[in-house]
Design a protein that fits this description.
Helix content is 76%, strand content 4%. InterPro entries: Uncharacterised_14.7kDa.
């Protein structure tokens, strides 16, 4: 389930970058398609639809993953209150062609 968890963290990072940098926009349809692909991948790994939905609905897990995403953002150079640092991180991810970058538009 690590691949799924990492995908959710990448999505949370992209969402946070979209929220904190006015110059970047989240690619919403791309994001939805990516989340659906994660759910399909989880099913291929043997998880039932009910297990996947329970995981998605788990508020504690959501908060845990959001915390990891924020921590990683800080490690990438984003500084709370200095929104230009979020823009720089987002642009770097777009330039790298990372999964985070694919969920953003400059």
């Amino acid at each position: 389930m690590e691949v799924i968890t990492e995908g959710l963290i990448d999505t949370a990072i992209a969402y946070e970058l979209d929220r904190k940098c006015d110059e970047l926009e989240g690619r919403r349809l791309q994001g939805i398609a990516f989340l659906w692909s994660l759910a399909a991948q989880a099913q291929r790994l043997g998880y039932s639809r009910e297990e996947i939905e329970a995981f998605i609905d788990d508020k504690d897990e959501k908060h845990r993953l959001e915390g990891i995403a924020r921590e990683r953002l800080r490690g990438m150079g984003a500084v709370e209150g200095e929104w230009d640092t979020y823009c720089a991180v987002g642009r770097e991810e777009i330039a790298k062609g990372s999964q985070i970058g694919k969920l953003l538009d400059d």
